[in-house]
Design goal:
The chain is an alpha/beta fold and about 160 residues long. Helices cover about 50% and strands about 15% of the residues. The chain has six helices and five strands; from the N terminus they run βαβααβαβααβ. A five-stranded parallel β-sheet has the order 2-3-1-4-5, with helices on both faces. It is globular and about 45 Å long.
């Protein structure tokens, strides 16, 4: 099967349990599209090694360094990519957008604007189900949400409200 000739890099912005992974799976159902999920890769490459935000930052950086060139190559080959990585800070978005820029393809930043109380409730349910690779405590939720920066017009992003 030949991929579509107009590949796109799909990026996701939203707080924990806002629905990013659900949307990512839906987007990846399009023909010629591949999903790369940060949580699954981190869980498989670094099992039992991520216990705090500092651990996540270290291993997420390593994962990005390894997968970045692959994502660029896939886009250049004509395959659209959905990156289920958080695009929640200026630095994260700059790096993710740089992948599209390197591949010379458009990007779409899908923004999920869900209130924290709803996210917290969804997170607790997700933790109770035990199917997600990582369980996040209320304290970790608060800390991670404190890093969130909504996308700004100055970033020059192609924003899609989800």
């Amino acid at each position: 099967m030949n991929p579509p000739s107009n590949p796109v890099l799909h990026l996701l912005c939203g707080k924990i349990a806002s629905g990013k992974s659900t949307l990512a799976r839906q987007l990846a159902q399009a023909p010629g599209c591949v999903l790369i999920c940060e949580d699954l890769w981190l869980a498989r490459l670094y099992p039992q090694m991520i216990h705090c935000v500092a651990d996540y930052q270290l291993h997420a950086r390593r994962l990005g360094e390894a997968l970045g060139p692959l994502v660029v190559a896939m886009l250049q080959a004509g395959t659209s990519v959905v990156l289920d990585f958080p695009a929640n800070t200026l630095a994260q978005r700059a790096w993710l957008r740089s992948l599209a820029d390197q591949a010379q393809v458009p990007h779409r930043l899908h923004v999920l604007d869900v209130v924290e109380d709803v996210c917290r409730s969804r997170l607790r349910e997700r933790n109770n189900q035990g199917e997600h690779p990582f369980a996040t405590s209320d304290e970790q939720f608060e800390l991670i949400c404190s890093y969130f920066v909504a996308p700004q017009a100055a970033e020059g992003l192609n924003i899609v409200e989800a």
